[in-house]
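Troubleshooting log. The previous structure file for this entry was overwritten by mistake, so regenerating from the original sequence record. Sequence copied from the archived sheet and checked twice against the printout by T.R.
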Amino acid sequence: MPKNEDVKALSKKLLIDRRNGCLKTPEKTLTDADAYCEDYKKFMNTAKTEREVTAYAVEQAEKRGFVPFEPGRKYSPGDRVYVNNREKSAILAVVGENGCRDGIRIAASHIDSPRLDLKPHPLYEKDGLSLFKTHYYGGIKKYQWTTIPLSMHGRIVRKDGTRLTVNIGEKEGEPQFCVTDLLPHLADEQMKKTLGKGVEGENLNIVAGSRPIKAEEGDNLVKLNVMKLLNQKYGITEEDFVSADIEFVPAFKATDVGFDRSMIGAYGHDDRVCAYPALTAILNAKTPGRTAVTVLADREEIGSTGNTGLNSQFLRYFVADLAQSEGVRARQVLSRSKCLSADVTAALDPTYADVYEPNNSCYLNGGVGMAKYTGGRGKSGCSEATAELVAEIRSLFEKNDVLWQIGEMGRVDAGGGGTVALYIAGMNVDVLDIGVPVLSMHSPFELVSKLDIYMTYKGIKAFYEA
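Regenerated output below.
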């Protein structure tokens, strides 16, 4: 029988240390994490939509010396460039000492989140109220979107081409909006329904007003009063909603959670909690060995479709132009490249532990979460990283004091999820999913650990500098 101290030494040598990451992290690192997350909270309150994140990223990039990328131009090590793709996705790059000849280092995240979009003809009046009709975007539990304060964000383009930015409900004193729900006294039939049917998508109607224009006669006077106010503020008519991207999102501010302030609650951690580390890592990057690229993509929540999502060609075109400027083929650059697909993963929730497999789950305060594969059930629709890439990243993280863990998205038959990894892997790039574990994912108010956010930043930065 080995002595007790021998067993402890053997365990330390051979077994994974599964203690709370805060117990393995120096106090200074925890302080650094808290400081980093103060700026993250400001970002979360500033940029709640893909347009706002893109505008924020471009503004911050230009302050750090990034300039618009020009295809055909020859770039030198240390040059900093960006691509603004239709104001809804972006690419930022720092040219490396060796350029892109030996491949590039990509961190790809998405900047869209579940929300309520306005329909083309949204405004109507019924029974003394004026309301907006919506079409929900992404995977939501519809009942979670009733009776919470909402703010209005987006872009309206008038038929003369004039562009108007809309943001109502975020500043102190501005009006906010909401979707109503049925009072429990009258909800017997509603509460007999399943959670998925208790609130129908067609009933996610947003209250817009209740006071009519004072007139002796006329129809839709409440609706008309709402349009009058919008016309006074933005100069629009009802027809202008046809050419508008208007989103309603929770008006909550990002806030510390817990007596110890160790967590942040906010709308849209998925996936701005990974986009922000990817953005700040490229902004803070020195001249790397290989060209470093941060991708902030749109449309991931609905399959990365469209010309601003990663199931398109905008990243491939950028790499092709970059390769051409250095006299190499894009396919050679891509086949030698590596990517961290930075997207959130599920954190084990002890209240709902039965849908998780504890030994293969990520936990709050466990550090940045790796996922060797995503997909659902039989790995359907997944991208799976090679053992060689996982070993390389795990070694890189450990050398740079990056706290990490690895897990799956719940039990095998419980469901699953996907990321942008499969689209980048489709370009013959080696890809590994990494990201921040989240509680209450896709809800209007998600929860993450400050330590995990900071470790995701450290991990991406180390990846760029390797």
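Residues 93 and 293 are 4 Å apart (CA to CA). Archived copy saved in two places this time.
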